[in-house]
Amino acid sequence: MAQPPPLATRPSKANSDNSTQFFGSQIGGGTVINYGYTDMPWKLMAWDIYYFFKFFWAIPYILWPLSPADSGELSELSPTLSNVWCIAIHVVLCAVQLAGILALPCLVMLPVWAAAMTVAAFLLLNKALCMLLNGEGVEYHSDPKYAPALPEHAHEQWIFINGVAAGAHWMQGNLNRLAVTFKRPVLGIHNKTAGILFDVLECLLQRNWGYATKDVRVCYSIIKQKLYNPQYSKVIFILHSQGGIQGSLILDWLLQELPQDILGKLEVYTFGNAANHFNNPHRHVRSQTLAKRNPLAASVDSTQLDPNHAHHSPVPGLRKPQPYSSPNSSFESSSRPSDAQPPRNNENQSPITTHRGNNTATTPAPLLTSSTATPHPSDFSDRAIGHIEHYAHTTDFVALWGVLHFATSLTPSPLFIPRFIGRVFARTSLRGGHQMVQHYLDGMFPLRRDPVTGELVRDGKMGVPWGAGEEGNEFMESEVLVGVGNGEGEEDGEEEVAAGVEVLGYRNGRSPEDAPPE
């Protein structure tokens, strides 16, 4: 079975308080994974329960740290009446659900009719409490005052699925924070909460048994319609926590039904992803074979390598996949055994440690000089879906149980590597919790503040935050090693994390192909 990833351990005090590790995307291949979502559901459930307790030390980080609430009223744990109300209801729900679960063995002492009535009363009470948190509908929209619809973004559709325990209030706060950060209206598909304990049970059913709830089916229908609509050249799909599980199910359905040329419109960005798989196959076996020959370069979707190192680097140059006139296009060496069976370690990911201060990286890295910051990155990677990136905190229990465990498992045999496609940015930070706004967005995209007073800069008319800050971002300004010099392990060059984070290009209404402000 797959071993836990090196990141999925209690952080050492010797480590930096703020560092980032980058994992290039897996390549995929012909191996059949015996520890993945295609295995027997009861086996997957057993392993999930095992790893639940293995990573149990990180449970407090779902809420910790409680401060600062840098987004003000948009932060989940800021001391507002609405937040206090939501937290109070969740505390009551946890108590009721825990009592109900512990009382289950006592039901065997009751007549069948009495036991059935007791269970029904318990479920009705739980439903009534959840109705205090959840709204009536499934579709939500960001408030226009945070980001009105603009003509220059009419070709884009932004969609968000929330995570565990988010009622209508927190869902709306997440949407508004995303809207003010990227200056686009955001459509939200509400993953309604059933209480924290029941939400965790639903996660187990969804990621191990493929159980699709109503919100999964609604979101699939919406995304399919948007992708087929010629008005949209981009569909940006943002997922948090349990939303990552639901998103992985939706992607599976899309990959089964939709033509791959329109799937190239889709870009996926996840935060604290709880899924156990993420699929994004190559369009052609040729490009997959080339990627296996050059796994380090291919794993970061690089479009070119530094020509100065073409003959000295241990990392071979990546040959960019060429356009195809037919899916059956062939090339002369595609049937050779060496192409079909690449070296075993070529299917592993390639970690690249980013650092600040005196913390240096020692892991070899591809000589990256440009990334796929284009409207359709799939043109370079030859993947079905345009682009996938995952952002995770190394102390976030949900990320440890999900993306960091499945996407970064480094084992000797490819038979034990779960299939989890997408680039991963794993951050170790003092604010490395699980909340979408307070921990992830406030850490990655802090809002603009007055340099003198430190207060949020707000729009004079609407009173809403102005947008994301352009400077002083510790995460984006941290550095990543992008060269290994002459092949003897020396550092050759560094880039800021911002140079590799695709979603950053959308900040404050820009697009990845736009030039940054002077």
Automatic annotation (TrEMBL):
Keywords, comma-separated and alphabetical: Membrane, Transmembrane, Transmembrane helix
Transmembrane feature ranges: 49-69, 81-102, 108-125
Keyword Lipid metabolism in annotation: no
Ranges of compositional bias, category Low complexity: 323-338
Keyword Membrane found: yes
Positions with biased composition (Polar residues): 343-375
Region entry Disordered, spans: 300-381
Top-level lineage group: Eukaryota
The name this protein goes by in its record: Uncharacterized protein
Species for this entry: Parathielavia appendiculata
